[in-house]
């Protein structure tokens, strides 16, 4: 095989994975589609994502209530991380509007000059507002029903939220950047692979890492922190808002800088070469 043929074989997408250039083009198209959607549609999609993502914390609280003190701590932590992924599977594969995915998708059209920063911020604000509404509604319903039905103890909600409330803002911000970075990679990889089974595996793998490491996610954190605040008067709304504010900034930086900007940069430079 000649050198030209070898290079073409390396650059060509396989049956299941798109090339980097194709992924960038697909993400650009997806980002433009989202930026052009009516705001009311974006908001409702954001509400749906906030509601759906709550199933992860619900299942985590149920398992913790049943297995804490029975299972070994490492085993329980691994299982809780895996259950954290459930809500993300519903959201990502269901194509609902999730803030941390849009930090990557919507930035790329801005980098190409096909959208402006104002439209980007409008998209982020609309989607996140919907995520917060949906997540808060789910948290309220979870607190009202889960203990009453014996699904989860109220103490489990506080346990899930404690890692987000026990660190300095600098540590929380750094962890949130890592979470945003991982979510940006998730968005890129889900676009890169074509079959649903591989997409499912990517979502579970990436979000399980976020859950196991207790990295602050600006949307799942709404459910966890709101539920804890509703059952523990010592957790104030100001504390919840402060943590979520730091998480939003960190997630946005992680997704837009470490994924969108860098991947856009090296793919475009590769095309120029």
From TrEMBL:
Gene3D superfamilies: Glycerol uptake facilitator protein. GO terms for molecular function: formate transmembrane transporter activity. It is found in: Membrane. It is a multi-pass membrane protein. Coiled coil: none annotated. Pfam families: Form_Nir_trans (PF01226). InterPro entries: Aquaporin-like, For/NO2_transpt. It comes from the Archaea. GO terms for cellular component: plasma membrane. Keywords: Membrane, Transmembrane, Transmembrane helix. The chain crosses the membrane at residues 42-66, 78-98, 128-149, 169-193, 200-220, 240-262. This is Formate/nitrite transporter family protein. It comes from Halocalculus aciditolerans.
